[in-house]
Amino acid sequence: MAAPLIGDGRVLGVLEVLDPSPRARTDIRELDLLAMFARQAAAALRMAAYAPAGAGAPEPGGRLGPRQRADALRLLDSLEQLLREPC
What we know:
Number of domains: 1
Distance between the termini: 16 Å
């Protein structure tokens, strides 16, 4: 499944979720959940793009600082746990 990350009327990227399960289990609830995460991710990208230097925005070159990396890893872990929950 994939959903566009849209901000300010333009595509900022794509959020893709791969399911290693041999059975396809995509339904409207999962698509809605993916769309919700895509909107959140797009909002975070917009905030990072407009944040002043030193305000938690990525370092020059697009690299995350230690704090931002830890926050991103926690977010990914939470998303993984949520997606692993039985429907």
